[in-house]
Amino acid sequence: MNLDTRGPAIDTLGVLETAALLRELTAGLISATDFDEALNQLVRIARDAVPGVAWCGFTALRAGEPAGVTASDPRLAELDDLRHGSDSPAMSAIQRREMVIAEDLKQETRWPAWIGRARGLGVHGVISAPVDVDEQVIGAINLYADSAAALTTRHQLTAMLLAEHAGLLLAAVRDRAREAAQAGQLDSALLEEGVIGQAIGVIMTQRGCPAPEALDVLRSAASSLDIPLREVAERLVITVSRPRES
């Protein structure tokens, strides 16, 4: 679909409103602790911040996992649940890699089964824009209207901006989660490793602290002395194991 962005259509976008939306979106998603929470924030913010949008949803396809659906209203989640079939605006947007719009579902002939469910839930218009997150996740953000012709050129432009911005933010959330998981795995390995594990045990005994805190103490010492973590651990273990002079 070609979107004509010339002339007064651009003026209707509302630069200040859009900037506020993207700022709120950034704050909401960056504060999320995981991907699913970020999706919940995304659909809530988009629903509340975009005039004329009654509901918002996100359809996510993750490698090796069933398709997931997040919606600002739980009733709307079933609209893009693939158990009802994959013929939907969201899947069309994902498969074609372009925005899909249906301004009036009464006049729409695509996705007949989906339209029946949508109209039964009070949906009369939809825009679905594809969202590229990373090599493992793709999706679509879905803006729903409760009246025909409520979705305008402004909403198309907003959907494009939302999709682009959300993709970048969601990718950052997933990167942060991966890094946290890797750090946790590394810490677990260090806690179990020979001399480092012994040194951590010594610190736990001396300070009466848990293992993660003892590991932080060991890391801080290594950073202050500018020597490898293992060497600090070895020095500590040798020191405490050395027989005291009588």
From TrEMBL:
One of its GO terms (molecular function) is RNA binding. The keyword Transcription applies. Keywords: Transcription, Transcription regulation. Residues 176-237 form the ANTAR domain. The keyword Transcription regulation applies. Pfam families: ANTAR, GAF_2. This is GAF domain-containing protein. It comes from Micromonospora rhizosphaerae. The lineage of its organism: Bacteria, Bacillati, Actinomycetota, Actinomycetes, Micromonosporales.
